[in-house]
Structure formats: C-alpha cells, structure tokens
Amino acid sequence: MTVTGIIAEYNPFHNGHAYQMEQARKMTGADYLVIVMSGDYVQRGTPAIIEKHLRAKMALNCGADLVLELPVRYATSSARDFAKGAVSILNDLGVVDYLCFGSEHGSISPFLEIADIVNKEPNCYKTILKEEQKKGCSYPAAHQKALQRAYAFTYPNRESDLSTEFLCAPNNILGIEYIRALKELNSSIIPCTVHRTSNNYHSIETDSKYASATAIRRLLLEKKSKHLKDLVPHNTLTDLMDCLKNNSFMTEDDYSLLLKYSLLQHTADQLTSYLDFPKSLANRAVGSLSDFQSFSQFSALLKTRDITRTRINRSLLHAILNIDQREHTPSFLRMLGFRRDAVPLLTAIKKSSRRPLVGKLADSPLETYYEDLFASNLYHSVAAIKSCQATCDERSIPLVIINS
Amino acid sequence: MTVTGIIAEYNPFHNGHAYQMEQARKMTGADYLVIVMSGDYVQRGTPAIIEKHLRAKMALNCGADLVLELPVRYATSSARDFAKGAVSILNDLGVVDYLCFGSEHGSISPFLEIADIVNKEPNCYKTILKEEQKKGCSYPAAHQKALQRAYAFTYPNRESDLSTEFLCAPNNILGIEYIRALKELNSSIIPCTVHRTSNNYHSIETDSKYASATAIRRLLLEKKSKHLKDLVPHNTLTDLMDCLKNNSFMTEDDYSLLLKYSLLQHTADQLTSYLDFPKSLANRAVGSLSDFQSFSQFSALLKTRDITRTRINRSLLHAILNIDQREHTPSFLRMLGFRRDAVPLLTAIKKSSRRPLVGKLADSPLETYYEDLFASNLYHSVAAIKSCQATCDERSIPLVIINS
Q1: From B6, B41, B192, B204, which residue has the greatest number of CB atoms within 10 Å?
Q2: What chain B residue is nearest to A258 in terms of C-alpha separation?
Q3: Where is the secretion signal located (chains A, B) (predicted)?
C-alpha cells in the first residue's frame, strides 16, 4: 500500500488543488491520498472562508481518501510551526510514504539543500540574519537574505538557482519547512513536489482554469459567481453556491467586535502571553485601540516594516481564540472525513498510528482538544449569528463519509 | 438653596419624566434638580437604548440642573442595590434636601411604613419569606407575600392599603428601597413621591400624552416614529430622530455574539463568580449553550418560575461586562452634564461632597473607575461596529453643558 500525504488549506478548494492531487497520485503511485487540512482558521490569521467539514467534503469529492484536521494553533502559526504540526501528524500515522507539496519550482533538490542549510544554521547564515533584523527587516526578509548568502557559499557555482523569487514564493517557503520538519523528526516520509502550473499564490487574476485561492475568495465575497464554474471542480460548485446564497462565507471582519472586546480586556503585557504576540505589536495594539474600526482595518493600521500582515492577523486571532504559548497538542488525530473505499487505509492506520484516529468527538477524551473545540464552536457561533441560523455544536457534527 | 434629587434611567426620556421633574420642583420648592442616572446599561439588564450623554442632554433640556452617572454595577443590580448605589451618591453630595420618586401610589406614608418593616425584618416576615421561597417562589414574589402579612400584622386595620398591586408596581418597589437606603445611611434627605398619572410601567399603550418607556422603546425599535412627537418633549425629538436615522438604538441582541463568546469561555462554577449569578442559572446557561441563538432568546430559554427575566438578563450582562462580586465603588462622582446656571450648585457641592465631582475623565484617577470605563467603551464599540461609524473613547467624550 502506497500512501501519499498532502498538507493543505483548501480555502476554498479549486482546480489547482484537484490538479495537485492528481499529479501527486501519478508521481508517487499512491493508492491513497491523506490530507492534513487547516480547520476553521487558516495560516493567513483569519477564519477559513468555509467551515472545515464542507472543505473536507470538497477534497474527498475531488480525489482525497482521508482528511485530517490540523489543530488550530498550528494552522494559525508561522510557516515553521504550521509545517511542524502538519508533518508530525503525517508522521504519527505510521503509514505515509510520501509528502507531496505544490511549489513554484517543481524540482525537489533545492528544497533539500536549503532545508539542510537552515537546519544546520551555519555562521554566515546566523550573522546575516541578525544584521538584517537589526536594520529593521522583517524575519522572513532577513531569513531570505541570510539563506541566499549561505547558499551561495555552500554551492558556489549555483548561487543563481536561489533567486529571491524562489524564496519569496509562499509554497516554496512552506516546502522548505516541510522538509526541515521531516528531518527533525527523522521521518521516513519522502518529500516530493508538484510544479504549480500557473498564477501566483496571491494573484487576483481569474482568466484561466487555474486561479489562486485569493482570487476565488475575492469573487465569492464580491458575489461574482459567474466566473466560478471555470475555476473550481464541477462537483464543488453546488456547495459553493449554497454558501453564497446563505451569506455564510466568513472573513476576519466577522470577528471585529470579538477582537475589540478581547483587546479592551487586556493590557499590552497580557497580550504578549498569547502565541506569537510580540511586545511591540501589543503596545501598538493597546495604544491604537481608540482608532479601531474593524479587524482588517486595525490589522492594516498596526502594520510596520518589521512585521507582516499575516503575522499581525495571527497574533490578533490568537488573542480572540485564547491561544497561548503553552504547547497544546491533541492526544488524538481528528478525522474530518474519508472515502468509503479507503477503509483498508483506516485499518492500516489503526495498527500503526502513534495517536488514535478519532472521528466522533463525543466519544473522545476532550481534555487536550479544548482549544480546538472552543475555536470551532466560536466559528459556528459567529456564522450562526451572522446568517441568523441555529448554531451547531462541534461535537455533534458527523464525520463526512463519501461513497465511491 | 433647596436641592432635590431624582433617581432615573430615562431609557428614553419622555413626557412622564418631564412631568415628574416639574412636580418634584413644585412639591419641594427646589432651586435645583440633581439626577442620578443609569449610564450605558440599565436595570432591565440590557444596554440603554441611547448612550448616556445624549440621555443626560435630554434631561438637562427638560428641567434637570445636574446629571450624575450611576455606576454600572448598581445600574444593573437588583432594586435593593440599585437604590443603595443611587441614594449613596445623592447622600454623598452633602447638599441634597429631598429625594423625589415617581410612584403608582402617590402618598409617602405607606412607603415609610413598609421600608420600616423590611429593614426591621420581624419574625413573621422572615418565616413567610423562607416558606414561599421553598415553594419555588421567586424572591420578589416571596418578599411581597411576606411583606403583606407583616404589614397586616403591624397595621391591623389597614391591611387592605397594601394591595398586591401596590407591591408589584416597579416604581413602588424602587420607592421602598430608596427609603430603606436612606434609613441605612442615616441620611437627612427627606423622601417624597410624585403620583404617576397614567399608563403602567410595562404598558405598551401609546394613545395618550404619557406612554411608558417600554412602549416608546418599542416604537423606536420598530421605527414607528410618527406617534413619537406626542410622547416625548419637543426638544428631545430631533435627537431621537437622529438616532433613528443612524440605526444607533441599542438592544441586548446587539450583545448576542459577545454573550455567546463569554459563555463559551466559562464553566458554570466560573459564571457564579459574577455579580448576582446564581448556581442554578449558571448550570442551565452552560447546559443550554447549544440552543443559543441570541441574547433575548437565550434569556427567555433560561426562564423558570423562580427567577425573573430581568434577573437573568442582569446575570448574563454581568458575565459580558466582567462585573464580579467584589465591591467596586468609584472614588469620585461622575458628572455627565449640567446647566450653566447651576454653577452655584456645583460650588456648594464642591464644598460639601464626600467624593470629588469629576467631569473630565482624562484628568481623574481611573483605578476605581475601570469597570465603568470598560462597560462604556464596550458600549461605544458595539454601537460603532453596528452603525459602521468610528468608535469614541469614553475618556474623550465632553461633558454636556447646556446654556440656559
């Protein structure tokens, strides 16, 4: 049995994701594709535009065999912790052979080389990292410069391979982190990459079959649904149109009042107790509170040269969701859904997994899952009040099971 | 100088309130009327329909000389604590001669007699109070039965004076509590009462010049503004119409998401740490959370025979506003506004007051005012996000000063 893992957000699911799954299956000869997917909150530091069970359903309908939830603290972390959390789930399953990620490059070797440099942190890397941060560079920018210098030093004839473009591409950044995490875990999972065919990650173009998730989110939020049918798989379209009809797409601005409420209750010092909430940002947040209008406006207001917008969003979201710095890892792996013909995969996982696989939360020990439960029940609450519908309780949502 | 105090909510201000001020001035020969008014939250356990500075302005335009804020923990308390908080402010001023309250009865003597019984708690009162509560009666209902029996015992020929109607009328209940509080403080302030001319407190009739605040709130929330001009003083109408235009009337359902967020973060035990939050209610609140739809729907859902709706609202509001059981009394008296020709009154208060009178929060020691500041800034936040306008900071709102 060959099993290939994919780490994803599917925010929302589109043609590019379906293509990646298809290519991953071909490239690795996989019998099964296991997806580790962000739950109700994503790495941009915002709620996911659609709740996770529906996103899992879309993935299962388009080629996935099993979808597992990435706990909220990893899903809303830096690329490094996002990757660590997700890779550790794939590794804990004990059955995964390959980890396949989309990249703007398409060849695995530079990823392996770069991950090696970052994990070893040679002196020239460390020195430049410090220098650039002192100059006021954000961590990602400083990291990138330091990496380029160290790469040129290690591979003197190939320094042009590591362009700024390469290191800025979000999928490449994540790819490097996946490989670092695999190395740190001494995992036997083999990394490989599928070349992303078109359109940049952040591009807002929608004139081909492949548009970025950013572009599709924009279409959805602006209710421009007519282009949609060319950009997402046919069998996800009905679900998307239902969401559109029910006004149930979620954005960070649906959390504006909760953010204000949370900030009003905290001193700058208290804010720094949340995950990834730097002191300078906490001071600015408390100091600018009287200019607060909405989540997105406030996040933009807090932006400076040395911190990214997504980092700010994540910090603010952590304060709303009470995600603090203590490590909380659920004692089990949460299944969001599977295809019925993937039962042999589930049987194999049951034998090999380092953490039990759980489908029904009601039967599970929830002590270690509290953080995720709160975050998701809050997501349901915001959605329900927004769309004037009844709230569902996370524990009562059934597992998505797709008949083949 | 004769000074008369009035305790009020003005939620919103209407003809009955103007009439009460006029009568109070006549009855006591007052040179000045001092109002102690609920701030942004009221005794029904909800946000005030209009923010406090505008309500203060309306009162000043219609006969008041000085408006002081009743701190939020008293404004959202039982009749007893509401009365205690408000009376202690009037008493601390050191210049108030009379306390005048509207009542459904109109004569002061039964109030004095009843307050005397309640303060002394004779055995027959205590026994019946206990018995009725054991039977599942709410405290107000049990208190009322016990009081009637004790009154009949003390004034054997006049037991019919103390009808159930008398004891159920909200203004009478408050009147009794004002007098109890005056007695407890050994205050020299003399209580007197103005007879309310028409329409019950909770009546929704709007066919005379005097409608209840409940009826007027309903008209405002349903945007039926055409009857309004007969029910409120002429010079408050423009302000009310502005609020109507800006969609800035507030109800407890504007706090639905905040309530859900707060409840999701608490165990039943933790909820009981808030002011007036009984254990049985806390258990029901946590146990019914999956049926939550809105503040008002949830409050109705939690209703049982032994607790009133306003009590439930107040408990829920205390959880949102972080109002706990510890006594927090601001070290100063907060002025919301005054008439310019009341300067001699301010001078007299400056000499006699037991707590300093503060107009500008920015210049005041806010350590003891934290609870009120949070509650009001939250009110402004909810209002701003609801009406898509900029939030104001409570500390920057200027004192209302009315030229004569």
Answers
A1: B41
A2: B258
A3: none
